[in-house]
Write a structure and sequence with these properties.
Rossmann fold, single chain, alpha/beta, 3 domains, GMP Synthetase, Chain A, domain 3, nine-stranded mixed β-sheet, five-stranded mixed β-sheet, globular
Amino acid sequence: MNYFTLLKEMSYKNKTKLFVRLNQNNYSYEDLFGAANCLGDQIQLRHSVVLIYSNNLLFQVTAFFAAMKSGNIPILSHYSLPIESLKKMIIKNQIKYILSDQNPNFDFLVKVETIPEAFLLTTEVEEEQSTTSTICMGVLSSGSTDVPKVLFRSYESWAGFFPTQNKIFSIDASTILFMHGSLSFTGNLNAILSVLYAGGSIVLTDVFHCKTWLNEINEFQVTTIYLVPAKLKAFVKFIHEPSKSVTMIFTGSQLLFSSMALTLKEKFINSNIILYYGASELNYITYLEYKDLLTNPLSVGKPFPGVTVSIKEGFIYVDTPYHIEGIDLPYTVYDRGYFAENQHLIFLGRQEDVINKGGFKISCIKIEEALKKIPGIKNIAVIAYQDDKRGNEAAAFLVTDGKVKKDSIRSMIKDTLMAVEIPKRFIFIHEIPLNDSGKVDRKKLKALL
């Protein structure tokens, strides 16, 4: 079983039903199956890993299914990846073939084959990576490293968990899900496939234009929104009247602070709001619903059914049957955290977000939570940096209303943070830079230090 087979089954059940609206163009289940089937017939490879390279959403989704139809293993590439990083990733993972809707002038290509609506590119890799028969797809990590990791998955490693996650996120055949961004990001691809599994519909755009988002949500009576917290924060500024059609908002990759949860509830009055914690190497791990979001700062909730979480030496370890190939359980991505008395998992951040000062652990996320409560601070990002004299320190980047001053911030923060936790640097900027996945761009922030 693979996702092309699933699309085929769903196209028989839902022929003319909207599967996905891409940048204001509608495609039924039958439309997408037909396009993927046709492109798949043109791919003469078998049992190869195929990197899909395109910034076109329609091509991304079509080629993903088409590669499976032809018996290959698709990986959707981050289109914005620097060419040198792309080359390193291809060589490191022995990826011999690229499927693209363009003919890029890469210096690591040895052959270009033109097929209807696409190009099949052969790289300089001579020997392909061996894969097991259970693998049906690959995904790329979206972490902070220059060269993303390739993570291989079986069909069951996601699809086996869809009944559980769809129940919690209230995804079914009546769902109309709104989302933004490339399908190369794991959360987006998982969301689309979970809706396919349920027989629902998707409204997808790669245009970052909040007024257009609002028009699409209202016109199509969207029931469910999936956006990372940074995008939700930008979006709510454009909502002037409460939206009634949305009944579920689920979000992850960053913490959703209580003030933002309250604002979302005011704008989407009929919605439940769920914050999840997950990892590309694993799957969904824990979740927290709206009522608990308000009273449990820094919490990412309790484990999903069937998932076990433990803490060892301050690191979060996870045991789940729904993980990538080739890892041992329990597994950690070296996120730090601990369990509160109510058994909620408290997320302290990625390993690089926790500063060790003389054995005292300082959480950048805890600092952010404290700073967000100060009137006049509109947005905040706290990162660790290396000070030549003091060693590891915290720097706070602030977007303010222009009235709040650095001295008053230092004074007010003393009520909620210990002296050792107070950032050594406060830097005022016009906006917090985001990367393509909607996460804080830490590289750009560090360049400002």
